[in-house]
Specification:
202 residues, alpha+beta, 3 domains, 7 helices, 44% helix
Amino acid sequence: MYAQGDNLEVIEELLSRSGLSPSATQFILALKAWVRQKPLTAKQSSALRYIKLTYDKQSSNMTEDNSHWDKEGREKASVCANYYIENPPYFSDLAHRVLGDPSFIPSKREFEKLINNKYSEKVLNSHYSKPRYEKGDLVTIRVPAKYLYDCELEAPMLVLQANAAPVISAAKDSKRYLVLPVGEEIPLLIEERHIKIYKRKA
């Protein structure tokens, strides 16, 4: 545990780093305000030490085998990081660092835990699956999803783009599309599982 006189120095050093997640930054700023008034408690000091140890791993990772951090690995980590940022609290800090700090390289253990779990695997499956609908297709919303979107039931929608935004659901077929309801001017994002091919009524 740090001596009380060292706490402010550690806080200032952490705040000078790039890649701190918003949650870590907010916590450290709160500690900075606290330590100027009175000493940190034992729990606060321990939390500060843990954060520093966590972020110090970044420099030590430079000497590790970083073969997992190739183009494919970075893409998979980014896909999963987007999901976890939208679905906290798990991996929140790691996800913010993956997306917010270009120089950050997660350890192989961190990387494997981020991308190899039942939720991440479903997200990656949706991301890498072949789009069921292509640009120019006419689709319509499925009845069970009607309450999720501001559009008319059975009204045609023109597909403008597949993979239009990061996958943020671990449900099957959650690839996201940009679609434009016919007659409207503003497109919307909709998940693959919520749409089907539009069929004109006879």
